[in-house]
Amino acid sequence: MLEIRELNVYFGVIHALKGISLTVNDGEIVTLIGANGAGKTTTLRTISGLIKPKSGTISLDGVDITNLSAKERVKLGISHVPEGRRVFPAMTVLENLELGAYLRKDKQGIASDLKKVYEHFPILYDRRRQSAGTLSGGEQQMLAIGRALMSRPRILFLDEPSMGLAPLLVQEIFNIIKSINESGTTILLVEQNASMALKTADRAYVLETGSIVISGSGEELAQSEEIKKAYLGG
To answer: Which of 16, 52, 174, 212 has the fewest Cβ atoms surrounding its Cβ within 10 A?
Structure first.
């Protein structure tokens, strides 16, 4: 489905991504883990079209999308939930969700998807007339995910969905991620909570200072002594 080959990204003289290659197959949850500054967010932003790579290719279903705009990538089925949620605080929950479907014209489909979002996140239905800025952190994260789902993505990028959330909410967010995946959406997940990420993911890549240093199934990496020591507190 998604294939990244030899991707290099620079910020001035800083070589942020150093020839990384990865794949995400249809129907998978794939996670990127690593320390702060490893290049995880940069990877997502580059695949989304928000950062231009110096070299390398990004392909979706065998079609090179490296030079497409972010808007064109959304049309092809890529949706991105950024780090820090980035909801529109002065707008209502419903208005935020409707913005997620801004490229769509199918009113019936939009209404159907809105209903599905409310099924995933019942609290958003209860809060639909409320300003997004008045929601709790967990509710804002649910809204950011719901808004991304309104574009009807084939592949959903999630950047640190558990950041700043209480442990019970973290578990709830990961349960929802699994549910979204089981409903047919492929997921590429960036997450600092390596333990939860590896439990949830089919496959994982570990990034260190802009390079992929190890990859494997979520289960394999969760059992790796090296990974336990570096990321799981083992």
So the answer is: 52
Q: State how far the Cα of 232 lies from the Cα of 194, in Å rounded to an integer.
A: 7
β-bridge partners, 57: 5
What does the pLDDT look like over 95-106, one tens digit per residue? 999 999 988 889
Q: 124: which 2 tokens?
A: 């958003």
CA distance 86 to 206: 26
d(CA 165, CA 138): 6
Question: For 89, which DSSP code?
Answer: T
Q: How many CB atoms lie within 10 A of CB 55?
A: 12
Cα–Cα dist 165/184, whole Å? 26
Model pLDDT for residues 23-60, shown as the tens digit of each residue: 999 999 999 999 889 999 999 999 999 999 999 999 99
Domain architecture of the chain: domains with CATH: 1-77+154-162+187-234 (3.40.50.300)
Residue entry with tokens 């492929």:
186
> What does the alpha-carbon distance between residue 29 and residue 155 come to, in Å, rounded to a whole number?
10
Q: Where does the pLDDT of residue 192 fall: very low under 50, low under 70, confident under 90, or very high at 90 and above?
A: confident
Q: What is this structure's pTM?
A: 0.91
